[in-house]
Specification:
The complex is a heterodimer of chains A (556) and B (421). Chain A is of the alpha/beta class. Chain A contains 20 helices and 28 strands. Chain A has one domain: Metal-dependent hydrolases (TIM Barrel). In chain A, strands 8, 11, 12, 13, 14, 15, 18, 22, 27 and 28 form a 10-stranded parallel beta sheet that branches. In chain A, strands 3-2-7-23-24-25-26 form a 7-stranded mixed beta sheet. In chain A, strands 5-4-1-6 form a 4-stranded mixed beta sheet, with no helix packed on it. The longest helix of chain B is centred in the C-terminal third of the chain and has 15 residues. In chain B, helix 3 packs parallel to helix 15, helix 9 crosses helix 10 and helix 9 runs parallel beside helix 11. Chain B is built from 15 helices and 22 strands. Chain B folds into 2 domains: 194 residues, 3-Layer(aba) Sandwich (Rossmann fold); 147 residues, 3-Layer(aba) Sandwich (Dimethylsulfoxide Reductase, domain 2), CATH 3.40.228.10. Chain B is an alpha/beta fold and 421 residues long. In chain B, the strands form 5 sheets. Chain B has a 9-stranded mixed beta sheet with strand order 5-4-20-19-18-6-7-16-17. Chain B has a 5-stranded parallel beta sheet with strand order 11-10-9-14-15, sandwiched between helices. The chains are: A alpha/beta (556), B alpha/beta (421). At the A-B interface, helix 1, helix 2, strand 9, strand 10 and helix 3 of A face helix 3, helix 4, strand 8, helix 5 and helix 12 of B. One zinc ion binds next to loops of chain A.
């Protein structure tokens, strides 16, 4: 079965002609270079005048795991306010800032996204995370396992364990939880909060283990690198949301000692303390450092004005920031010698000084970081705002005069403290395609995603050009997932199940002996119960297949 | 005869360290059990696959599913209840609910909502089993459900001389009166303070502790039968704790507006975190209540009880509570799904009833359709959420009896409805 798309302008930054009108061919869910000799074309989609891109990839979106489910339970009113009625192929569910898993799959697909990555899967919560992702239809999924606040690793570091042991533990965690990458959230801080430490700077010692965040970051970045996991250590830095956290963010970059790291929701970590209100933008300093550090990639975590709910593993900082939350109800949890979480609703207002400046800081980062291969489009869904605001965000990046109009309406004190008005850069379609497709695929090691060359998954989005990029990106004409039409002009047409993406680096299974003893002494489940094998993850995750991506171990 | 490692699904603790002897399909707990699990495994008896029944008459599975589909096709306002199921059972239940526009609620909805209500009004600071096991230097026990309803809670979480930081000496407060046997079971070597308040005195005790912890003066000499001296001592212990944990089972708090007591506990915990660490550890998860609610919440975005009528989902504890819907005569068909413990039979309601039950459950009345299904963790593998809501455990299958899972039956039923509509 051969399908052809004719006449589209194909924007495909990975290939030699990144922007040209050409035909695309699809056979059995994959892109092929063209028909075999005499092979008939079964179906032709006329895309003359339209724009084709690969399916978009969100590399940081909280779609699975307990946190968002706590948010849904905490705020049922948000769901009730945003019902999504059943259709021929979709079940009744709700949208809103903490959308149901069903709505998440439907809306992502309708917007042209074909893969989403849950960035904060607690190892002890991995089964539920895979179950929630399994009930998120259409899109492919993967998850990053959180380490760096688990008592086992902190104990290893405190005892001066050698690098091989740490590396084996990291690899074991990736296998046991079926993850594709490793994330660290407020290195050591979530654990320190359990010992009543209320803040933890990069060079401050954990009150019980005596380990500093710098050590945790360095050792995890090293282990991930040595194992050859494609995605660098994914870092939620210390001091989330705290004025003046620019210093700890810069220190975090240094802690990697030149090894690859990815700094997530950088907007929340780019704050200075200048001005009457002791709150200012440090985006320029951060961007300068990122531009000069080729080992660093980032995603922004842009905030969008409106009601949302923040759900983070960072219990220490969520507890600290909870008093700013609206409505005034929140949850903080210590979790199982493993991690923690905090769920705090927020209402970001454009007339509020702090919120307005946060909004401007995010955009400054987007515009000041020059390399679109190293900066990714995220709102840290739902923390900065729901993913459904991406088309609006793209418009803010592509349309300078629109950006200035919005800037003129925000809190004037904040507007006076941002350089945003003087930044003339406008993203091109090519750059948007890089930051939402090609670059996330590359940094996650997804060889067959993010591009439209032969061999790629046939995840194809056909957009109708429109003077307003928000309109263009909100409702593509057609979205194809593995060659199947899944959405048309915002309406879901088919609801297939996506694959689970993982990595399985080699390691020495001898580490399990030590882990078994640790589990018996400290945990409340056995090591055997904790581990999730391939068959089980496909059942939990309702996945037709597990896509295991290659790791190329490096010796150190 | 063989020995199998098992995870026990008979209360929300989901102990995964049981050893079960399997002899001719009969199960006997030989290690890691408690009185409750030993009885529950013994009660399963020999593996049997009784036939489905239509109005009490034996029938094939296909015929029973077809009959069930007929009942549902005739229904305008179906209700799905019980939900004593594992994750996949709940997934299939919800797929059916969306298809037929049903109201959905758990059999034990009322108890669960006491905690949920406080979550939705106030939030909370909570912890999990391993945190409590490793870090708690003070455990405040409210009611007696932690012993009666969760038999191994003391042994697994409170007793072990754990290894974390704060637990050199563990203090225990029993807030409400408990029987002597339960008192005997408290770990040796722990310092124990017994307040012995009556359960109904809890709200007053909480308010009083709140005042003491905030340093406000307390007036009455005795309160709800507790001496002021004991209360003051309790407040001192609470304030001195480095990691305190307060434990209750919402099922114990069975009086009107008991959620106010849960809220008072949550408020006290929040106050204490201003200076030290303190967390709530509510116990639940028995009979699949947390599992059913979690799956409903993630798939639809709102918790139970919910209605899927008219192609949209709505959450409203006042309108969709199972017993109330039946009492108001608002249901014209009932689907009862109960594969785990089978403890709660479908309520006698007079409406046509389709019951998916354990093989050993005998119902008083003959429902329109009864289909025996496999018990997760016994006759089929499955998954359940543990009491602390973060851990989902796999329940391996222990024996073969040829019964279909609840999920399989519900999917078949859904398939029938989709075919002929
Ligand atoms: S305490 Fe609960 S889970 Fe553990 S063995 Fe007893 S009944 Fe089973
Ligand atoms: Zn984060
Ligand atoms: Zn995040």
């Amino acid at each position: 079965m051969l399908t052809r798309f004719v006449g589209a302008r194909v924007i495909d930054p990975v290939h030699a002609t990144p922007d040209a009108v050409r035909d695309l061919y699809v056979r059995d869910g994959r892109i092929v270079s063209g028909p075999r000799d005499g092979e008939p074309v079964h179906r032709t989609w006329d895309a003359a005048g339209a724009i084709a891109m690969a399916g978009a990839i969100d590399l940081h979106t909280h779609i699975g795991g307990g946190k968002v489910n706590i948010a849904r339970g905490l705020l049922p009113e948000l769901g009730r306010e945003h019902p999504l009625a059943a259709t021929e192929v979709c079940g009744a569910c709700t949208m809103g800032p903490a959308p149901s898993t069903l709505a998440t799959g439907y809306r992502y697909a309708a917007m042209g996204y074909t893969a989403c990555f849950e960035p904060a899967m607690l190892p002890v919560n991995a089964r539920q995370a895979h179950m929630e992702m399994g009930d998120t239809p259409i899109v492919d999924k993967g998850a990053y396992a959180m380490l760096g606040n688990d008592d086992f690793l902190l104990r290893l570091l405190a005892d001066g364990a050698d690098r091989r042991e740490i590396r084996d533990y990291v690899a074991w965690t990736l296998h046991a939880t079926q993850a594709i990458a490793i994330k660290v959230v407020n290195a050591g801080g979530i654990s320190a909060f359990k010992f009543n430490q209320r803040s933890l700077d990069v060079d401050e010692a954990h009150v019980h283990y005596g380990v500093t965040p710098r050590t945790i970051l360095r050792e995890l970045a090293r282990a991930v690198h040595d194992l050859g996991v494609p995605h660098p250590l994914h870092v939620h830095s210390s001091n989330l949301g705290v004025p003046g956290n620019v210093d700890s963010t810069l220190a975090t970059i240094d802690a990697a000692e030149g090894l690859p790291i990815h700094l997530t929701h950088l907007q929340f970590h780019s704050y200075g303390t200048e001005g009457d209100r002791r709150f200012s933008s440090a985006a320029a300093r951060i961007a300068e450092k990122v531009n000069a550090s080729p080992n660093v990639s980032v995603d922004v975590g842009q905030i969008m004005f409106g009601q949302t709910v923040t759900a983070s593993g960072d219990s220490m900082l969520q507890y600290r920031n909870a008093r700013h939350g609206r409505p005034a109800k929140w949850v903080v949890m210590d979790i199982e010698c493993d991690a923690g979480c905090g769920v705090v609703p927020f209402r970001y207002r454009d007339r509020d000084f702090v919120n307005a400046l946060q909004w401007a800081i995010g955009l400054e980062l987007f515009l000041l970081i020059r390399d679109p291969w190293r900066v990714f489009l995220t709102t840290d869904h739902p923390n900065g705002g729901p993913f459904t605001s991406y088309p609006h965000l793209i418009k803010l990046l592509m349309d300078g005069s629109f950006r200035k109009d919005v800037l003129a309406r925000i809190n004037p004190e904040a507007a006076a403290m941002t350089a945003l008005g003087s930044l003339e850069r406008e993203y091109s379609l090519q750059e948007i395609a890089i930051m939402t497709r090609a670059a996330p695929a590359r940094i996650l090691g997804l060889e067959d995603h993010g591009h439209l060359g032969a061999g790629a998954a046939a995840n194809i989005v056909i957009y109708e050009p429109h003077p307003d990029p928000e309109v263009m990106f909100a409702t593509p004409r057609w979205v194809f997932k593995d060659g199947e039409l899944v959405a048309e002009r915002g309406e879901v047409k088919a609801v297939p199940q996506g694959a689970i993406h993982t990595v399985k680096p080699d390691f020495d299974r001898g580490i399990e002996r030590r882990l078994k003893t640790w589990f018996e002494q400290h945990h409340t489940q056995s090591l055997a119960s904790f581990k999730i094998d391939d068959e089980e993850v496909c059942e939990c995750g309702r996945a037709p297949r597990l896509a295991v991506h290659a790791c190329r171990a490096r010796s150190s | 005869m063989s020995l199998r490692e098992a995870t026990c699904a008979f209360c929300g603790l989901l102990c995964d360290d049981l050893e079960v002897e399997v002899a001719g399909g009969v199960l006997r707990v030989v290690r890691g059990g408690c009185a409750r699990s030993e009885a529950a495994f013994a009660a399963l008896g020999e593996p049997a696959a009784p036939p489905p029944r239509i109005a009490g008459q034996a029938a094939t599975l296909d015929a029973a599913v077809a009959a069930a589909a007929d009942v549902l096709r005739a229904a305008r306002r179906p209700l799905i209840g019980g939900l004593d199921v594992d994750v996949n059972g709940m997934r299939s239940t919800l797929a059916l609910a969306r298809r037929i526009g049903a109201v959905v609620d758990h059999a034990d909805g009322a108890a669960k909502y006491r905690n949920l209500h406080v979550l939705q009004e106030f939030g909370g600071i909570t912890t999990t089993f391993a945190e409590a096991r490793n870090r708690a230097d003070l455990v405040v026990l409210v009611g007696d459900g932690w012993s009666r309803r969760f038999p191994r809670f003391l042994e697994r979480i409170v007793a072990p001389g754990a290894s974390g930081a704060a637990t050199a000496a563990r203090r225990i407060v029993t807030v409400t009166a408990i029987d002597p046997a339960t008192r005997m079971a408290l770990p040796k070597g722990a310092e124990v303070l017994a307040l012995d308040a009556p359960l109904v005195g809890l709200p007053a005790v909480c308010t009083m502790l709140q005042a003491l912890v905030e340093g406000r003066p307390v007036q009455p000499a005795r309160l709800a039968g507790v001496s002021q001296e004991a209360l003051v001592r309790c407040a001192e212990w609470i304030r001195a704790a480095r990691y305190g944990v307060v434990v209750w089972s919402a099922a114990d708090l069975d009086w009107p507006h008991a959620e106010l007591t849960v809220q008072a506990i949550a408020r006290l915990v929040r106050t204490l975190n201003g200076s030290t660490r303190f967390a709530a550890l509510p116990l639940a998860g028995t009979d699949g209540d947390l599992t059913a609610n979690a799956v409903q919440t993630w798939q639809s975005g709102v918790p139970l009880p919910a209605s899927y009528a008219n192609g949209s989902v709505d959450f409203d504890p006042n309108r969709y509570a199972l017993r109330d819907v039946l009492a108001r005569g608002e249901a014209d068909a009932l689907v009862w799904v109960s594969s785990l413990s089978g403890a709660v039979p479908p309520p006698a309601s007079g409406v046509p009833t389709i019951a998916l039950t354990r093989a050993d459950v005998r119902l008083g009345m003959a429902p329109s359709v009864q289909i025996p299904v496999a018990t997760p963790g016994i006759d089929a593998s499955g998954h359940l959420l543990r009491s602390d809501k973060v851990i989902t455990l796999r329940l391996p299958r222990l024996r073969e009896n040829g019964l279909p899972s609840a999920s399989t039956v519900l999917d078949a039923l859904l398939g029938q409805l989709e075919q002929r509509c």
